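Wait, can you check?
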Amino acid sequence: SDPPPSFVMATRDEEYDFVEEPPGDFFCPVTSDVLLEPYLTECCGQHLSETAYRQLQDEGKPCPECKLKDEPLKAVKDKYHKRRVSSLKVRCPHKAEGCEWEGELGSLEQHLNAN
């Protein structure tokens, strides 16, 4: 039988092998990183990674989606969206070495630390 499809997505620090292709709104439009720590902009509801949000805030730049320049960029941590992202199914990064673990992204670190 054919091997299962692979949806490998990289962030600045990590690479994830998703069991199914994640929805587009699970990625930051600025950094293209998986939204592990998503922020939700107050102006238009755009999701940003923590890295992108902090960088835009530090540089005094507007929201990359609606570009409202009159107000400083404000956002809040989106715990609901974080739970959704954390529930995505991933494969162990040590699959090539024989690990067959598949589980939720939010459990990956615990799996890696247990082995």
User: Anything to note?
Assistant: The two ends are 29 Å apart (CA to CA). The first strand starts at residue 7 and ends at 10.
